[in-house]
Specification:
Shape: extended
Strand order of the largest sheet: 5-9-12-13
Mean pLDDT: 82
Low-confidence stretches: 1-5, 7-15
Structural class: alpha+beta
C-alpha cells in the first residue's frame, strides 16, 4: 500500500505491484471532498461533515481493507483538517505518479525537505479520480485564505478572485455588517494608502458574474462553431504568419544550440591539446554558456506560444463541456464562480454626467476575457426609456404671480405643521396633568 494516497492501492499479484487499482468504496469520498472545496466549503467544515456522517478516516479505512498498521482508534470516524488538506494536495488523484518528492542530504539527516526541482512526474499512469482542471481549481482556491464574515460566520467565495486594476493586489472583504458587505483594494486598506479604494459591493459583483456567465453560456449553446473560431482568433498567435515566423525562429535557435554544442567540444579538444591558452578558453566558454542560456529560454517561449496556438480549440472544447455540464444558472453560487471564473479586474469608479460608473473585466476559465452579446431581457431593459425626474423650479425662474402663490402655499403648509405640533404638545400636557390637582385649573 502506498502511504502517499488514500484511494489507490497496489494490486495483489506480486508480479504486477507497480499497477495501481481504484478503491471503489473510497473514491466517491475523495470526489466529494474536491467538489465541496469548489462549492466554497472550508476544510474544517468538510472534516466536521465527514465525522458527523460516520465515514471512516483514511487510517481506519486502511485497517478495514487490511492495508495499514493495526492500532486502536478512539474514534475511527474522526476527520481532521490536516487529513482533508493532505488529500486535496495529492497529484495521484488526477492519474499522475510523482517520485522524488523529498530528498535527504545525507543518510544521517532526519529531515526530508521537499525537492520540486528533482521530482519525476509520469502522467496518465493509472485511473484518475478527479480531472486535472478540477484539481487545479482546488489548488487555486486553497492558495487564498478566506476569513469568515462577522455577520454569518461564512467565508466570502469572492475573496482571492478580485484584483485591483492599478496595483494588481487582491481586493478584500471588509466583512463588517451585512449592509456593508463590500470589497476594497488591500493596498488602500494598508496604512500607506499606496492605492485608491476601488470600492465595489458584493451583491453588485455577484450580479455581474451571473449575468456574464449567462451571456457566454447562451452564446456557446447557440453558436458553438462561431465560438470556437472567436476563441482561436483571440489567441496570442492568431495569424498563421505569426506561427510561421515563430517556427522559423525556433528552428534557427535549435540549429544554433547544436552548433554551440559542436563548438564547445572542439574548444575542449583545443584546450586539451594546448592549442589555446587557458584565459582564452575561459572567456570563450563563458560566452558560449551565456548564449546557450538565452537560446534555451527563447526556445521555451517560442514552443509555449506555438503550443498555445495549437491548443486553442482544445480550450474552447473544455469550456463548451463546462457549459453543457452546468445548465442551472439562475442563482449565483460558489460553484458557478469557481468553475467559470478565473479572475476579475476591478477599476476605480468615476462619475460621468453625475452617475457613478465602474469598469469590471471578467476573465473566464480556459478562454480568458470574452465579450458575448447581451441577453434579450437585458436589451428590453436597456431600450426602456428612463423616466426623467421633474426638477423643481427655482424662484429666479418664476414670474411674480408664481412666486406669490408659492409663498402663500408655504405659509399654509407652515401653519398646518405648527398647529399639528401645538395640538400634539397639548395632548402630552393633558396626559401628564390627568388625575392631579392641576387638571381642573387648566
Amino acid at each position: 500500500m502506498s502511504s502517499a494516497t488514500f484511494i489507490l492501492t497496489f494490486s495483489l499479484p506480486s508480479s504486477d505491484r507497480q499497477k495501481w487499482i481504484l478503491d471503489e468504496e473510497a473514491a466517491p469520498i475523495v470526489k466529494r471532498i474536491f467538489q465541496s472545496i469548489i462549492e466554497g466549503k472550508g476544510i474544517q467544515k468538510i472534516a466536521d461533515e465527514l465525522t458527523a456522517e460516520g465515514i471512516l478516516c483514511p487510517a481506519a479505512h486502511w485497517q478495514k481493507i487490511n492495508a495499514g498498521m493495526k492500532k486502536p482508534f478512539s474514534d475511527p470516524c474522526k476527520w481532521t483538517p490536516t487529513t482533508v488538506g493532505n488529500i486535496i494536495a495529492k497529484e495521484e488523484y488526477k492519474g499522475w505518479v510523482v517520485l522524488n518528492k523529498t530528498v535527504k542530504e545525507t543518510y544521517k539527516s532526519k529531515r526530508k525537505p521537499n525537492a520540486p526541482e528533482n521530482m519525476l512526474i509520469f502522467k496518465g499512469v493509472h485511473p484518475q479520480i478527479v480531472d486535472e482542471e478540477t484539481w487545479n481549481v482546488v489548488q487555486r482556491l486553497r492558495d487564498t485564505k478566506r476569513k469568515p464574515r462577522r455577520f454569518d460566520g461564512e467565508p466570502n467565495p469572492l475573496t482571492g478572485v478580485l484584483y485591483c486594476a492599478e496595483c494588481g493586489h487582491k481586493l478584500y472583504d471588509t466583512g463588517r455588517k451585512k449592509v456593508h458587505n463590500e470589497y476594497v483594494c488591500s493596498s488602500y486598506r494598508h496604512y500607506t494608502r499606496s492605492c485608491t479604494m476601488h470600492y465595489i459591493r458584493t451583491e453588485v459583483i455577484e450580479d455581474l458574474i451571473l449575468t456574464a456567465v449567462k451571456r457566454v453560456s447562451r452564446y456557446v449553446r447557440e453558436n458553438e462553431n462561431v465560438f470556437v473560431e472567436r476563441v482561436r482568433e483571440s489567441s496570442l498567435l492568431q495569424k498563421e504568419e505569426s506561427v510561421k515566423a515563430s517556427r522559423r525562429k525556433l528552428n534557427q535557435a535549435t540549429r544554433r544550440c547544436d552548433e554551440i554544442g559542436t563548438l564547445v567540444k572542439k574548444l575542449y579538444e583545443s584546450y586539451a591539446l594546448d592549442k589555446i591558452p587557458e584565459k582564452h578558453f575561459t572567456e570563450l566558454l563563458a560566452g558560449y554558456d551565456s548564449e546557450q542560456t538565452k537560446l534555451d529560454s527563447e526556445i521555451a517561449e517560442l514552443q509555449t506560444a506555438i503550443d498555445n496556438y495549437n491548443t486553442d480549440s482544445v480550450r474552447a472544447d473544455k469550456f463548451i463541456e463546462l457549459v453543457k455540464k452546468n445548465t442551472e444558472l439562475n442563482v449565483f453560487s460558489a460553484t458557478i464562480l469557481n468553475e467559470f471564473i478565473e479572475k476579475i479586474i476591478i477599476h476605480e469608479a468615476v462619475k460621468i454626467d453625475g452617475k457613478r460608473t465602474q469598469d469590471v473585466e471578467i476573465f473566464f476559465t480556459f478562454i480568458g476575457k470574452f465579450d458575448a452579446p447581451m441577453l434579450p431581457e437585458e436589451l428590453e431593459i436597456a431600450e426602456e426609456p428612463t423616466p426623467k425626474k421633474r426638477r423643481k423650479k427655482r424662484r429666479c425662474e418664476m414670474t411674480a404671480e408664481q412666486i406669490k402663490r408659492e409663498r402663500e402655499r408655504d405659509h399654509k403648509r407652515y401653519e398646518k405643521k405648527r398647529n399639528a405640533r401645538i395640538a400634539a404638545e397639548q395632548v402630552v400636557r393633558d396626559n401628564i396633568l390627568q388625575g392631579t390637582a392641576y387638571e381642573e385649573a387648566v
